[in-house]
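look at this:
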Amino acid sequence: MEQIQLYTNLQYLPNDLKSEVNNFVEFLLAKRKKELKKKSPRYGSAKGQIYMSADFDDPLEDFKAYM
């Protein structure tokens, strides 16, 4: 649909419906803006947030009987 057609159709609506159309257009624009903001995580983006203790690979005392 072309802009001229939309504008022409909008002129024939009463003011309360024009208000609803305006609210809907604002909703659609906000929704699109949210979709554009979504980014996929990049490699290395969690750097410094995850750590492992120095004794991570050491055997556990609870399993000495099984070893």
Summary: The two ends are 75 Å apart (CA to CA). Residues 19 and 32 are 20 Å apart (CA to CA). The longest helix spans residues 15-37.
